[in-house]
Each structure stands twice: as structure tokens, then as C-alpha cells.
Amino acid sequence: MEPILNLINKEAVRAFEAAGYDGSLGKVTLSNRPDLCEYQCNGAMAAAKKYKKAPILIAGDVAAILEKSEVFQEVTAVNPGFINMKLNREFLTGYLQDMQADENLSVEKAKEPKTIMIDYGGANVAKPLHVGHLRSAIIGESVKRIARYAGHKVIGDVHLGDWGLQMGLIITEVKKRQPDLVYFDENYQGEYPTEAPFTISELEEIYPTASGKSKEDPAYKEEALEATAKLQDGVRGYRALWQHILNVSITDLKKNYGNLNVEFDLWKKESDAQPYIPDMVEYMKKEGYAYMDQGALIVDVKEETDTKEVPPCMILKTDGAALYTTTDLATLIDRMKNYHPDEIIYLTDKRQEMHFTQVFRCARKTKLVEENTVLKHIGFGTMNGKDGKPFKTRTGGVMRLEWLIDDINAEMFKKITENHSVDEAEARETAKIVGLAAIKYGDLSNQASKDYIFDVDKFTSFEGNTGPYILYTIVRIKSILAKYQVAGGVLQNGRIGLAASASEKSLMLELTRFAPTIYQAYEEIAPHKICSYIYDLANEFNRFYHETKILSEENEEQRASWIALLDLTKRVLETCIDLLGFEAPERM
Q1: Which of 512, 516, 520, 501 is nearest to 562 (CA)?
Q2: pLDDT tens-digit readout, 161-214
Q3: CA–CA separation, 471 and 479 (whole Å)
Q4: Could you give all domains of the chain from N- to C-terminal order, each with its CATH number?
Q5: How do residues 532-553 score in pLDDT, each as one tens digit?
């Protein structure tokens, strides 16, 4: 299906041409004065100078032609030269009937689908997920779903941090505590145990302990560096222990990401890029891209148009060690070789903007990616507490993600059970569903690049621009549809009819904005556009609902029409929240 605005634009282009003016002037937009009209065209204002004619006269010429179109109910030329339009009810109904019959709800899939990779995990193994991981996971999951709905092949990669000194620190601390483990016996030739010698809880305590010791004890840090070197050199016992760390961590990470309704197609790790590094370094040297500077290997990436300093991209440190830039460049080689993406999107804190500027420029300069491969970094702002500072626990520490989720769920359970007699098990399950909506909508309704305040009271409210309000609206529609069916009505039989009131027409017009919203959210990588849309749609539905006695309407044809309109509204809302990464319960 073609977006309704495209159809309206075509009518305006034809009208301008028929009136003797340039058709490109017939650009129509949603009205910024909905109290006056539904759509508007300002082309006559732009035409005045070219045709040496008063804009109101040009607008009048075009409006006279548009009035004859079956698309419009009313067209008026307004000083100083605006063309105001209201849609014909029959045209609007016909469009919604087509939308009703379309499984994609009027969204046309990409004619030339792209392969898009999204890097939106970035967690480190052996560490719990904390609130700092929330935004990349939530935004990345939504971006992935939106791109898929737009018709593209999308591959989500967690890109775990599992390499470097952090692994050496963990191995060193395990060795201190359990020196007799077979992994540290250099003469051992047998199979290593399948069971890890630690739990996830122990592992999460081991790393900070080891990190603290290394900062205070130089000898301890030296041991950790040696353990890191042994791991990277492929010592069997160390590799086996590292694999245990991965297995235990990934199992826990999958559970915690699962609680956020976040899924990855690939569970790739920094270590997967390591085999590419030696050849990459040699290639960069041989081709003259990289050179030594004060003992480090670097690639210049500054450009003449830069307005701020862009430092060289360091490939190897003075001690020959690789850096994050090295790993990210090697990961690009892996991705290009195995997945051939047309586009790669990275979701990280916006403070990493310079890092990705360096990596992207280096990758292009050294031809690690194809010329037409798009590389994008979506830098997001900080999630802050009410004090405006990064979100912390009450004691000032970094809050674990599962604690935040538990707090939100507890708050939702309290609100659901207040003044209501409900089954506790059902209430707790509903609280989890609504709690996740509160967290995700609270985050995604903000533009990604902006910092925002994580306000538990506001996000869990059933009123205002919140996830629970959106879900409450969907549940209200579900309840009406269920009552209609219990009374013998059949949903599939209904066809949307002509709008019988201003509020019904407003709801119908809002539904037609679904496809343009999806296109815009995809093009701009902007899930907040969908949040803004469904808030408007929920408001229009609730206004219609409060003004209309739907189930008590005696005219069966009218009642069936309204039910069909509600069903379409539900489909659109449920599709949108799925793209945001949450769902609605059956009851609230």
C-alpha cells in the first residue's frame, strides 16, 4: 500500500500542473493547525515570486481544482496563500479498509532489502549487567525490530568483552584460591572437567576482588599480566578455564537479557577477532597505512575539514599490545568476510564518539570495508537519577540491572493490587509485563542522544506519556472486543464504515500515520518517533471511546464498524509495542 500522504501529494501535484504551475510546488504536509484543517500545502507561497502573482490567487486557482477531487471533502485558500484540506470520509474509509486487509498494515517492505548488522550488547563476561547496559540493549533491540519490519535482513551481535587483562585477573584470583585445580598443572594431558569450578555469583565477586588487588599490589598485577599472556598464547589449562568463564557468564547474560526481552542472533566475542589481528597489522604496515610513532603503531585519520582535533588511530601500543580500536577493526574484517553487511550500526554511550570516528575512518582508509558499506555510531545519553546524576543504588554504587527490574516490578505489583482483589500469581505476572513496558517506554520515548531522568513514579504511572498508559489503552480495547464476541459478534465480519463523529475521524486519521511513522523511525534510527505516535494514537482512541457508546449501539452495522475500527487500532498499537520490545497483558 502507498502511504496516504503520497496519494494526497499526487492530487496536489496534478492540481498545480492543471492550474498552470510547477507540479513540484504541490507538497502537502500534516496540518500544524488541526483545528482548521487536516492537511495543508504552502506551495502557492513559494510560487508567488516565480509567477509574479499574489500567493492567495495561486492558492485559489489550485484549490478550485482540488475541490473537484474525490479525495477531499473541503479545500480552502486562506490568506496569505495557504491551501487547507480536509479528507473525504469515503476516501478515508476506503484507505482504512485496505489497511485492515493488509497484513503489513500499509507498510511497504523494502524493495531492495539490505543486510544490516547491529552491535548493541557490549557486556563484559564475569561481570553482572548494570544500568549502564540498559540503553544499548533497549535501543538496539528496538532498532533491530524496526529495520526487520521495514523489510531488511538484520543481524544483532552482542559483541562480548572476553579478552585482555580482565581474563588474566580472574584466572590469577582463581589460582590463588584453588591452586590445586587441574587447569594449573602444566603436565596435565587429560580432558578437563565439564563443570566450572565456580558459580556466576562467585565469578562476579572474583573479578572486582582481583581488580582491587592488582591496583594495590604490583606483583599481583604482574601475575595477572602473565596469566593474560598464557591465555592468549593458547595454554590449554588457561583456555579451558576461560571457556568455563564464558559458559557460566553467557548463561547468566542470556537470562538477564531475556528478562529485558532482548535477543541476539550472534554471541560473538572480542576473542573471535583476535586471529585477524596479526595479518591486519602486517597489511597496514606493508601498504604504508600504519607507521611507528614513539614506539606505537598508528594510522593517521585526520581530515582537512575537521573542526576539532582527531588523534591518530592507535593500532598497537608501545609494548605491542592490541587495543579496543585494534579489536574493533579486526571485528570489521570478520563481519565483512562472513556476513557481507551493507550497513553496520553501533549502539554505545555517546562519549565513545571519537573512538568510532577513528575506527570508521581507519577502516575506510585501509579498505577494510567495501566503499559502499555504511558505518554508523548511535551515541546515546546517560540515564540519570532524579538528582540529575548517573543512576546509582541508594548506597551510591552502580545498580545491577536485575535490581532495577525487581524494583520496577514491585512498584507495578503494588499499583495493580491497590484497591483490587486479584489473584497474586496473575498480578505478579502482569506486573512483570507492565514493568518491562514502563522501563522500555520510559527510555525509548526519549531521543537516544539525550540524557534523561529515570523517574520510577512517572514511568510506572497509568496516566500520561508512559508505557503503562499505552498498555492500559490496549487492554481496554481487548476488553471491548472480548465482550463483543461473548455477545455473539464476529470480529472478522466487520468493515470499517464512514466516520460518524469528529473524534472517530480523528482516530481514523491517526491510524493512517502508522506507515509514515515506521518509515521515519527506520530512516532516522529513532524509536522515540514510534513512542510519540502511539501516545497520540492512544489519546485519540480514548477520546473516541469516552464520547461513543460502542457496545450499547443499537444499529448492528454501526456497532460492527466501530468494532472493526477498534480491532485495527489494537493491531497497530500491538505492532508498535512489539517494535519497541514489549507486549500487553490480557488484563490489568
Answers
A1: 501
A2: 999 899 999 999 999 999 999 999 989 999 999 999 999 999 989 999 999 999
A3: 12
A4: 4-87 (3.30.1360.70), 120-160+269-384 (3.40.50.620), 165-259 (no CATH), 401-580 (1.10.730.10)
A5: 999 999 999 999 999 999 999 9
